[in-house]
Design goal:
The complex is a heterodimer of chains A (300) and B (420). Chain A has 300 residues and is mainly alpha-helical. Chain A contains 13 helices and 2 strands; from the N terminus they run H-E-E-H-H-H-H-H-H-H-H-H-H-H-H. Chain A has a single domain (71-299), classed as MetI-like (MetI-like fold, Orthogonal Bundle), CATH 1.10.3720. Chain A is 74% helix and 3% strand. In chain A, helix 1 (2-51) crosses helix 13. Chain B folds into 2 domains: 11-189 and 321-384, D-Maltodextrin-Binding Protein, domain 2, CATH 3.40.190.10; 192-319 and 407-418, D-Maltodextrin-Binding Protein, domain 2 (3-Layer(aba) Sandwich), CATH 3.40.190. Chain B contains 17 helices and 10 strands. In chain B, strands 1, 2, 3, 4, 5, 6, 7, 8, 9 and 10 form a 10-stranded mixed sheet that branches. The chains are: A mainly alpha (300), B alpha/beta (420).
Chain lengths: 300, 420
């Protein structure tokens, strides 16, 4: 009798657990899914529709499927597009060159204080993005603590300036996105199996060979992730150009802001955003196909 | 008693405690929420909801202002440093206003720049909702005209504006951007002229064209917006801002563009131009009058302490602009707002504000009070706060756009110059 009851309970319970098991993944993904639907999918569809509308703020915008706008705005703002990609690429290259030795040193020679060094690396980035950039504006001003001193020593000519130049904007971007490069690089280098390095040394590889044949190839996923994480926001950045830039340094982010907030040309701003997004996606896709590794997920 | 025994409860009460009942009101609320989500999506839509600006004859003032009874609250959106402040950070004139009228003022310095502020409130107005502000301060030369075109400003009933009638500077009445002051009353005005560092620039500049002098290569600042740089450029070439043709716009734009590409112009600035000037990044720059007054005044006077910074009126005439008080559409407390507008035009109030703000007050009779009662000759005798008739004789107003198309055309000429 007792046994029979137990079996019946089992029989009743079993399908229930199964249902729960089957539902679990969906339940887990549900909050995130709803979040993305409300705050990503709907706005992006809405922006897509805006980019194809025509009209003015006064008369209202109506959806006219004006695909020609994409060509028009790309033509109009081609210099700013090209400049954004150029600035983004140079800044990304610069962060790679700066961050790689840094991450390498922390990962291989940081010893007990690795966490401290990482914290030191991140410390400036606890300050707001804009404030940090404004601080550079102050430090690099023509009569400021750096240039002013050098000028008073007659090391630099009176008219020399860094602010309001392309160099200033690119340096600002490189500075602001440094952790996005350094951290994935650090993770990748940290994960390099020391025994493999030792094995290479045991096989009489020179220091340079160990690096080029073992360590660097093993850190490629980190390089990949770092470039991705730096390049994408760098291209769309507008804060550095606005604060550190001058003439002929306007980036596409500034133009989108201008079209949206000053000219109230919502369709133009939306179309520009989509073009930027499209080029970036295309670039990332090609880049992932050419250089991507399967373990990329581990680092991003 | 067995702990699992449930005490006897009335079934109806039990149902009420354990089950949710959907009443008719709830039902309405839930449907309302559904409709709400729908209307949010619709509100996101930029579909045209703009109404044509109501004509003065058709305005039913009683509908807006009722019987003129105040509500006791005023939500006031203004710019930073644009009202008198005492050592405790409070505004004496606002306190006095509350004392006299019983209207509590929520004063918020939320406006950093016209366009971003409008970009925030226009979608709200488009959805037919109240912006949360009863009184806002926006500049002519685009922002005011845009709000008027959109029909997003509340018409002013002049029967509440007796002080304005008596005391407002005739120069600020009936302006070209708001004929008959249907929607606006000037808060403060200012000049766009030239500021220079007298330590470096030895001969005082006399014209906008001095900004194109290669001697100051890389150390010249200009404004990066569609009024403050274009209008002085046009004026310096002898063109009338409002009558100039698009070909003449282009001619003036090319003049500035050449200086830019020769590296003479360092950057096109927003309000940060004054920091660039104070830091020594620029030595000669386009400037707004009040800022230069503040920058050059000594620190114990409340200024920034850069006595070497000087102001110059260009001989072709400075550009004269106005920040205007207006009441946005759907404002909750329009009577309180218009009561304050009128209050701001009392000479004693205007004098106290002028003595702190250092821009041009729209109440010329405040000068006497600043000089004789507040005993502040520095402000009272400054042409930047109380300009002389000669200063005002040669001024030029901002460009007024006759249509959105004209504005787009204008922008397509000037924008490539300052946002390159």
């Amino acid at each position: 009798m007792e046994q029979r009851v137990a079996t019946r309970v089992q029989l009743v319970r079993k399908p229930r657990t199964r249902l729960g098991k089957r539902l679990a993944p969906y339940l887990l993904v549900f909050p995130g899914g709803v979040w993305l639907l409300i705050f990503f999918l709907i706005p992006i569809l809405f922006m897509a529709s805006v980019s194809l509308q025509t009209g003015t703020l006064e008369s209202g915008f109506r959806l006219t499927w004006h695909f020609g706008r994409y060509v028009e705005v790309f033509r109009q703002y081609r210099p700013q597009f090209l400049r954004s990609f150029a600035f983004g690429a140079i800044a990304t290259g610069a962060t790679l060159v700066i961050a790689y030795p840094l991450a390498y040193w922390i990962a291989f020679h940081g010893g007990r204080h690795k966490t401290t060094f990482l914290l030191l690396l991140l410390l400036p980035f606890f300050v707001s993005f804009v404030i940090r950039t404004l601080a550079w504006q102050f430090i690099l001003s023509d009569q400021g603590i750096v240039l002013g001193t050098l000028k008073s020593w007659h090391v630099l000519p009176r008219s020399f300036h860094i602010l309001a130049t392309r160099t200033a904007v690119v340096s600002g971007i490189a500075y602001n996105f440094l952790p996005f490069m350094a951290l994935p690089l650090y993770v990748a280098l940290e994960r390099v199996d020391r025994r493999v390095v030792e094995a290479a040394q045991d096989l009489y590889a020179s220091k340079a060979k160990v690096f080029t044949k073992v360590i660097f190839p093993l850190s490629i996923p980190g390089v990949f992730a770092g470039i991705l994480l730096t390049f994408v926001p760098a291209v769309g950045d507008y804060v550095n150009a606005a604060i550190l830039g001058g003439t002929n340094t306007t980036m596409i982010g500034n133009i989108i802001q201008l079209e949206f907030l000053q000219n109230f040309h919502y369709p133009v701003a939306a179309a520009l955003s989509f073009i930027l997004m499209f080029i970036l996606l295309l670039g990332i896709f090609a880049y992932a196909r050419l250089l991507g590794t399967r373990s990329i997920q581990e680092y991003v | 008693m067995n702990p699992y025994d449930v005490p006897e409860l009335h079934p109806a009460l039990l149902r009420g405690l354990t089950q949710r009942r959907i009443s008719r009101r709830d039902f309405l609320r839930y449907t309302g929420a559904g409709i709400g989500v729908g209307s949010i999506l619709a509100a996101c839509g930029v579909s045209g909801t703009a109404k044509p600006a109501s004509t003065a004859s058709a305005v039913d003032f009683a509908k807006i202002y009722g019987n003129g009874a105040t509500a006791g609250t005023l939500n006031f959106a203004n710019w930073e440093d644009y009202i008198d402040v005492d050592s405790k950070g409070r505004s004496p004139t606002l306190l006095q206003f509350t004392k006299e009228t019983g209207i509590k003022v929520n004063y918020k310095t939320v406006i950093n720049d016209n366009d971003p502020f409008l970009a925030k409130i226009i979608p709200v107005l488009q959805a037919g909702q109240d912006t949360g502000y009863d009184l806002i301060v926006i500049t002519n030369g685009g922002p005011v005209e845009r709000m008027v075109r959109l029909g997003y400003l509340t018409p002013l009933d002049h029967k509440y504006l007796s002080n304005w009638e008596t005391n407002a500077d005739p120069k600020t009445k009936n302006p070209n951007y708001d004929p008959g002051n249907k929607y606006t009353a000037v808060w403060q005005s200012g000049f766009t002229g030239i500021a220079y560092n007298s330590k470096v620039v030895k001969t005082p500049p006399t014209s906008f064209k001095d900004l194109l002098n290669p001697a100051y290569k890389g150390r010249v600042g200009m404004f990066g917006n569609n009024q403050d740089m274009p209008c002085p450029a046009l004026v310096s070439m002898g063109f009338d801002v409002d009558k100039a043709t698009p070909a003449q716009w282009q001619q003036a734009a090319d003049m500035v563009k050449k200086a830019r590409d020769d590296g003479i112009i360092r950057s096109f600035y927003d309000q940060s131009y004054i920091n660039a000037l104070e830091n020594g990044d620029t030595v000669i720059t386009q400037a707004w009058s009040g800022d230069v007054f503040i920058a050059s005044a000594s620190k114990d006077f409340g200024g920034d302490g850069f006595p070497e910074l000087k102001w110059a009126f260009p001989q072709e005439g400075a550009v004269y602009w106005h920040d205007n008080m207006c009441i946005p559409l759907h404002a909750q407390h329009p009577v309180d707002a218009i009561t304050y507008m009128n209050y701001a035009y009392r000479p004693d109030v205007a004098a106290k504000m002028a003595d702190f703000i250092w821009y041009v007050t729209p109440v010329p009779s405040a000068k006497d009070i600043v000089l004789n009662q507040l005993k502040d000759p520095t402000v009272g005798n400054s042409p930047l706060v109380f300009p002389t008739t000669e200063d005002l004789a040669s001024v030029h107003p901002y460009k007024v756009f006759k249509s959105p198309e004209e504005e787009d055309k204008w922008n397509s000429v000037w924008q490539p110059v300052y946002s390159s």
